[in-house]
Design brief:
- The structure is a homodimer of 237-residue chains.
- Chain A is 63% helix and 4% strand.
- With 237 residues, the first copy, chain A, is mostly helical.
- At the A-B interface, helix 3, strand 2, helix 4 and helix 7 of A face helix 3, helix 4 and helix 7 of B.
Chain lengths: 237, 237
DNA sequence: GTTAACAATCACGTCAACAAAATTTTTCCT
DNA sequence: AGGAAAAATTTTGTTGACGTGATTGTTAAC
């Protein structure tokens, strides 16, 4: 189940879901890998799922496409994106560019309450790992990074990170070895310690290393990005 | 006519030529400050301007809004965004986070042809400054930064930079002292020299300093965000 | 003379029907 | 029986019309 506050949209006639809600719900589903790369996102199905008109759905899909989370193919429909190895490298390069600084800024700006929230979040992560609730673990793992961006108090970078974290989930789904845990929460723990000692530099370094490890655990360059290259696959040697 | 069927792996936008075109044209107009903050972007007017249906325009406006370049107000219409001082600080913080790394990566990856293109670009910048073609100077000035992101060969960060450069133009339009030139092309020149000596670290440092100077030339915290506070403005003393 | 309520106009937002394209199923021929 | 062509169905894309909400100008009342 989603731990996020359940919206009561369709309960009473409390008015429509904003398209932003739809976008966020789909983002979340992608992060939790309930929507694997390549999944067809039919308009009519989504209309029924969210109980809204087609126009709302189409706008949501357009927004998702502009963040490269869905692939919008003309006259064919919308599909969950299948990042190529090249795109995967670019996403990680962007994260390695931004997140160390975000971590440092977060340390510098975190209130004691923020740090408490981070601690609480980490406990939830531990619990999820312990209970083998894979989806919950993945979701919390991504949200940890978003929490940092939120503490850094930069809405621009927060928005960018939302996109990057979501796409990272797709990337791990495609290129991750099945055994690999997305984020070792040990790493998150070490970053939290940097908060407690108010060591921004350490947080930045740990984040950089954290991302390097994750990317290293992937198998880029082997598998193609979901849209399998059949030509090469069946080519005679 | 629709384009002839191309190779199978050409998944990128098929008929979205007009779509991205409208967005890019509006981006460009905002960068050149021909569309000042707060300008109303009436759907019907844009329909006529671009000679397309209302739906196309609405989608373009939605995309522009998702990049926070236009402000979409319910039942009132679309307006060119008026960044607040806080938003301005966030944009610059994001740029200072990303662009030094982008500059370094660009230096590391630039071909000799890339460097020649940069040189040519700088000459155009000089010419525009000399001829007092303000719009052209501003446009080229922003494009220099996009060129670096392009050379860095990271499409994710390139897209993010397009947004940030455009919003920076709005910010300078609001908070910039009239005399201030957006980018001193001397700074660009120094960065180009770092390319010639293949000194990535120097390029990163110069870029950081460059951005710091620009932000320092603004007067944040004084003016309100373009949506001028008429109440205060005309209040009797 | 000022203010407040009301009405008219205009633009945006949504809905429904229509057209075009693609996928699937059926049918016919080899 | 297998495959190819054609028809039917489903799905997407577009256009038009209509309802809603906001802004503005007018009028009436105080």
């Amino acid at each position: 189940m989603t731990a996020a506050p359940r919206s009561i949209d369709d309960l009473s006639g409390v008015d429509e879901i904003a398209e932003e809600d739809i976008v966020d719900r789909i983002f979340e589903a992608v992060v939790e890998q309930r929507l694997p790369p390549g999944t067809k996102l039919s308009e009519s199905v989504l209309c029924e799922a969210f109980g809204v008109g087609r126009m709302r759905i189409r706008r949501a899909l357009l927004l998702l496409a502009s963040r490269e989370v869905v692939d919008l193919q003309a006259n064919r429909g919308a599909f969950v994106a299948s990042p190529s190895p090249q795109q995967a490298r670019e996403v990680f390069e962007a994260r390695m560019t931004m997140e160390p600084t975000i971590a440092r800024l977060a340390v510098e700006r975190a209130s004691v309450e923020d740090i408490a929230n981070l601690s609480a979040h980490l406990m939830k992560e531990h619990a999820a790992h312990h209970e083998d609730s894979r989806q919950e673990a993945i979701r919390l793992s991504g949200q940890f990074h978003l929490l940092l961006a939120q503490i850094a108090a930069n809405s621009v970078m927060l928005r960018m990170m939302k996109e990057l974290v979501t796409r990272t989930s797709l990337i791990i789904g495609i290129f991750g070895a099945p055994s690999v845990t997305n984020c070792r929460d040990d790493d998150h723990e070490r970053i939290l310690n940097a908060f407690k000692t108010r060591d921004g530099k350490a947080a930045a370094d740990l984040m950089a290393e954290h991302l390097r490890v994750i990317e290293g655990s992937l198998e880029l360059g082997n598998k193609t990005g979901g849209a399998v290259d059949l030509v090469n696959l069946f080519k005679r040697k």
